From TrEMBL:
Keywords: Coiled coil, Cytoplasm, Nucleus, Signalosome. Belongs to the CSN3 family. Its main location: cytoplasm. It is found in: Cytoplasm; Nucleus. It comes from the Eukaryota. Residues 450-495 are annotated as: Disordered. InterPro entries: COP9_N, CSN3, PCI_dom, WH-like_DNA-bd_sf, WH_DNA-bd_sf. One of its GO terms (cellular component) is cytoplasm. This is COP9 signalosome complex subunit 3. GO terms for biological process: ubiquitin-dependent protein catabolic process. Residues 228-400 form the PCI domain. Residues 462-495 have a biased composition (Low complexity). Residues 28-55 form a coiled coil.
């Protein structure tokens, strides 16, 4: 294993003969396909290594007792193993070493982890993807703490391909990549991940649904940062509407941003656009709004079409928006209302002076009005012409007649996408309808028509589509205790 630190193992340590026997066991059990015994052997080896590193004077021992044991033990292990041949044997041990390391010996372990994530054998790793995923989570967390998030993005991007069975499979490691991109304030590495409409969930992600929520939460933040508000709104909506039996802190923060992004992107539409879909879990619909009163008041003020009312609400809850790290989005909501009011004027007037327009939408003067109108014309949100001679704005109809070849190509692409989506929905429906647990629950509900329970079997059943369990009530695992640090535009939540 080139590039791995070869430091001493410190006092004590696990005898090399034990690791040789361990490697032999793992190799034989893997060949036999004895997963249960393999899991037992790996757990015992990890516990033995953890006890070794917890000894006084070891790298993970009592506070203030620093030694080279954590990276030293890994150096001894790495010298005995080959990444491709022994990936399964190494992953759990590397995870233990990383968790037990100290600031003095962690750098070499992080370098070794990056190499392992990039070069390990995916076929072996997929036998125990949750162990590999936990290593990825620990690695991402350490890279954040060390202020080097950008260095962790490439290894984790390669790690995703190790546990994915297909391109449209969402893994828990996707959330780590988005977290690092947010912390590094770069969007490009996450662009491809965020443009995929996932249809499968990996085993590691379904085991702890917090990471599914975090992917859509972090992804929404990244998309909002680059002003792809339509896609960001989609991500926040998914985060809030994932079936749940409890409201998680992640959902709460996502709902706040859902409101703000919806006002920015959809504020010109009817107020009903702010209502969560009917398939939102009852407990989420019931408790989210009372917990977000500063944001629900913002909706009321926005649709009053009164700039002063909106400004009053913003001033009233300024500290709340600041503590939630949502001040930037709130400022864009204020700007969005002004644009919405200008759009409304295009439906009432054919011509309007810049001075009159400024008064009606609450701008300071005609110069500000002109700048904003020009910007909206360039964005394509309105169609108008400004006369410099008399300072008048003439609002025009949309010049597009929707008969060009470009429009037809766009229409054809959308139809093709809808057909593919329909086929996919039919396939997923067949998977659900043929699931034995779903069939049993459906039958039980059919025979208990007089019972008070009205639950939909799909809301509470866990089913597998061949890529891991998909839990209808999984996000309960990400309850209010699954919160990280402040979730907002500058600081990144992680756990």
């Amino acid at each position: 294993m080139s590039g791995v630190h070869r430091g001493g193992g410190g006092a004590g340590g696990v005898a090399p003969a034990h690791w040789e026997q361990y490697l032999l066991h793992v190799r034989n059990l893997s060949a036999e396909g004895n997963v249960a015994k393999l899991k037992e052997v790996m757990s015992e080896a990890q516990e033995r290594l953890a006890r070794c590193l917890d000894q006084p004077g070891a790298g993970g021992g009592a506070e203030g007792e620093v030694g080279p044991t954590a990276d030293g033990e890994w150096a001894k292990l790495a010298a005995m193993m080959d990444i491709q041949e022994h990936s399964l044997a190494m992953v759990g041990l590397l995870s233990v070493c990383l968790r037990k390391s100290t600031n003095d010996n962690r750098e070499q372990l992080l370098n070794s982890t990056a190499m392992f994530l990039s070069e390990c054998n995916g076929e072996q790793i997929r036998l125990f993807p949750h162990i590999f995923a936990q290593l990825c989570h620990d690695y991402a967390s350490h890279m954040i703490k060390r202020g080097k998030p950008i260095q962790g993005i490439l290894p984790l991007t390669k790690a995703v391909s190790k546990i994915q069975l297909r391109d449209k499979m969402l893994t828990s490691v996707h959330s780590d990549i988005c977290m690092l991109c947010l912390s590094a304030k770069i969007f490009a590495p996450a662009r491809d991940l965020l443009n995929v409409d996932f249809t499968d969930i990996s085993e590691d992600a379904s085991a702890e649904c917090k990471y599914i929520l975090l992917y859509f939460y972090y992804g929404g933040m990244l998309l909002a940062t680059v002003k792809n508000f339509a896609r960001a709104l989609h991500f926040f909506e998914i985060c809030v509407t994932i079936p749940a039996v409890a409201v998680s802190h992640i959902m709460l923060e996502a709902y706040k941003k859902f409101i703000l992004v919806a006002l920015i992107d959809q504020g010109g539409k009817a107020k009903e656009i702010m209502t969560l879909p009917k398939y939102t879990s009852y407990v989420v619909s019931k408790y989210l709004q009372p917990l977000c009163s500063p944001y629900t008041e913002l909706i009321t003020s926005y649709y009053s079409n009164d700039l002063s009312s909106l400004q009053t609400t913003i001033n009233k809850y300024a500290d709340t928006y600041e503590s939630d790290s949502n001040s930037g989005l709130v400022d864009q909501v204020l700007s969005s209302q002004t644009k919405t009011n200008i759009k409304r004027l295009t439906k009432t007037f054919l011509t309007l002076s810049l001075n009159e327009l400024a008064v009606r939408v609450g701008l300071a003067n005609s110069e500000e009005a002109e700048k904003l109108v020009v910007k909206m014309i360039q964005e394509g949100s309105i169609h108008a012409k400004i006369s410099q001679k008399d300072g008048m704005v003439r609002f025009d109809n949309n010049p597009e007649h929707f008969n060009s070849s470009e429009v037809l190509e766009t229409l054809e692409a959308k139809i093709t996408r809808c057909m593919a989506l329909d086929n996919q929905l039919q396939s997923l429906t067949e998977v659900i309808e043929t699931n034995s647990d779903y069939v049993k629950r459906s039958g039980a509900l059919a025979y208990s028509a007089g019972a008070t329970s009205k639950e939909d079997p799909a809301q509470s059943m866990s089913f597998s589509n061949g890529s891991g369990a998909v839990s209808g009530s999984g996000p309960a695992a990400a309850s209010s205790s699954s919160s990280g640090p402040a979730m907002g535009n500058g600081s990144v939540p992680y756990s």
